[in-house]
Amino acid sequence: MKLRIALLLALAPLGATAAQEAQGLEAPLADARLEAEARALMHDLRCLQCQNQSIADSQAPQAEAMRKRVRERIAAGEDPDDVRAWFIERYGDWVTFTPPPGPQTALLWAAPLLLLGAGGWVAVRMFRR
Amino acid sequence: MNRRALLLLPLLLFLGLAGLLLVNLGRPQQAAVHSRMVGKPVPEFALPGLDAEAGLSSKDLATGKPVLLNIFASWCLPCQVEAPHLEALAARGATLHGIAVRDAPEETRAFLQRHGNPFARIGLDRGGQLMLAFGSSGVPETFVIDGRGIIRYQHLGDIKAADVAVLLRELERAQ
């Protein structure tokens, strides 16, 4: 109990964010760099239960199971992209907030370039006049 | 082109976007997420069972005969609703295996006592990790697995009376 209070006091200056609340007393990885990698991936994976939240922000039990898998695989030395690929293999692109480039998302990824091109074309025409 | 008409373009774009957003406001937010594991072999696993009973492993899902794999939990209300339909499937000759997800063994046992036990084998997935390996997005869910251990079909949500015939047909197709 004393240890837990001491831990809470130690963590207090970091500020209690929603994500920390969601994750309760889940143990972070001992290696801070790996934990940061795991956290970054958690923010990019979508919770299957409360679907518009990331697993980092969700209190759903299934999100907890997904966080556990993320930490375990990253602790085992796996690359975050491979962990993400494992989830995509099972749930489709839907499970990540960063849709991978492909025929379905081509327009999405090309949109900035197309819009920039259109804007440039309009600008060139206006300056010429 | 007429410059007047061109000036109206942003307004039209805005109205189009507003209309799109308005229509989607009324649509349900929960998307049905189908497992991409359909067509692939079941993941390798070996789960403990209840009491001294044998658990469930991937070997039990590749015995030459198609089976149903039901993912359930005692805390899941739709699982109670579908229980009679699972019994009906078993009565009509289907082999059912169960995976109890994030559930204490005593709770699972009480649930089966109250709602019937149609399962040949039961595995306990206490951490919910196997469910992820199957690409399952919630409970209950039911997979049709063929005799070689390939996932052939996934039923999302509880099995309703009309789904019994569908699942029996899928079992036959998996022969």
Task: Walk me through this protein's architecture.
The complex is a heterodimer of chains A (129) and B (175). By secondary structure, chain A is mostly helical. Chain A has helices at 2-11, 18-23, 32-42, 61-75, 80-91, 106-128. Chain A has two domains: 2-98, Cytochrome C biogenesis protein (Helicase, Ruva Protein, domain 3), CATH 1.10.8; 102-129. In chain A, 22% of the residues are buried. The A-B interface holds A 48-49, 51-52, 61-62, 64-66, 68-69, 87-92, 94-95 and B 29-31, 33-37, 102, 127-129, 131-135, 137-138.
CATH topology name of the largest domain in chain A, in short, is Helicase, Ruva Protein, domain 3
CATH class of chain B: Alpha Beta
Biggest sheet layout of chain B? 5 strands, mixed
What Rg of chain A do the Cα atoms give?
20 Å
Looking across the biggest beta sheet of chain B, what order are the strands in? 5-4-3-6-7
What structural keywords apply?
A: mainly alpha; Helicase, Ruva Protein, domain 3; 2 domains; 0% strand; elongated; B: 175 residues; alpha/beta; five-stranded mixed β-sheet; two-stranded antiparallel sheet; 5 helices; 7 strands
Question: What is this entry, summarized?
Answer:
The complex is a heterodimer of chains A (129) and B (175). With 129 residues, chain A is an all-alpha fold.
